[in-house]
Design goal:
The chain has twelve helices and 16 strands. With 407 residues, the chain is of the alpha+beta class. A hairpin with a 5-residue loop joins strand 1 and strand 2. It is elongated and about 80 Å long. The mean pLDDT is 97. The structure holds zinc ion (ZN). The site of zinc ion (ZN) has 5 residues, from loops.
Length: 407
Amino acid sequence: MKVNRKRLEDSILELGRIGETPRGGLTRLALTDDDKRARDQMVRWMRTAGLRVSVDQMGNIFGERPGAEPLPPVIVGSHVDSVPTGGKYDGQLGVLCGLEAIRALDDARTRTRHPVTLAIFTNEEGARFQPAMIASGVLAGKIALEDAYNARDRDGVRLGDELERIGYLGAEPCVARPFRAYLELHIEQGPALEEEGLSVGIVDGIVAISWSRLTIHGVQDHAGPTPMRIRHDALVAAADVVTGVRRLAREIGGDLVTTVGNLTAHPNIVNAIPGRVTLSIDMRDPRGETLDRALPMLDRLVEDACAREGVTYELDHYWRVPYTAFAPDVVAAVERAAKGAGTRHRHILSGAGHDAQYMAAIGPAGMIFVPSRDGRSHCEEEFTAMDDIEHGANTLLGAVLELAGRA
Ligand SMILES: [Zn+2]
């Protein structure tokens, strides 16, 4: 059994026109009018495919293809929201390959024992409402529904109000229900598959993540009359920390990646010595032990940098996510499907979070990666070749068929 490449490509092009940017990317922030249009399009396609569509209290959309037996469903899904000036592949590809797998089952008149359900999760990106993956987080019981409703965007608009405004505040409770497997096809967002000439990544898990927040208190003073010898410059200490965080990844080596992605200097004007700086530190590694080693090293390098500049600081390691291991039987089904589809593939880890992470907390989950050109994503240049998409979709179809079982 194979997917219909032409039909899949047409769907990708058509959905990609909703929120398209002049340079061929996508701006479709969660719960905006364009997000509503994309959802409406998906619901039309789901109904045309004969799926029973329901919407839950978080606006997550489910379309069920009945199974022959009263068993928990195999869920395939991803998201249709994007980051600003993002690409047309992140999220949409998982949803559309899932839809295509269901259409292919219909073409072959194949009944499965378990139902097959297509899922579209609300606000995966976290570009408009924080945190990211908020709706699968509520589903998994990790985020309270009221907290999610009260998340506000930059303009102070409530998530709950926007769900209602676009007509996707559903009645179904957003709670965990048993499922046979959750499968998410997604772009790799890194360079590994392309560099090795492979079409499919069998994802074993998602790396462990640690987030820290550092506030440095220096002495704000005039940039002119203050001699260099008496300065306590918070930004100079911060610069020392930024290069130290990079050095830390080199020293520990392996797969550890470290990033200072956010930095705010105060008062941030040309003629004052910065009196206060806040910055973020993001560290990721497949092994939690590596982060256990890195954190005390981070403590020490911050202490040293601040001592050198004679400034004080607060360092808070406020968020930690352990390594998410995907279910061995789901990973094995994906591997057999990748072989069966004749793809060039290998095992891989995800360096980014996905809805699959929360789904893995409440049931057996797995992911399939397809290559990202030049490893790039969250940008208008994001691209995956149709040959690779077809291999990925056939792998997804094979895994769904195995996990849902022929009736
Ligand atoms: Zn995504």
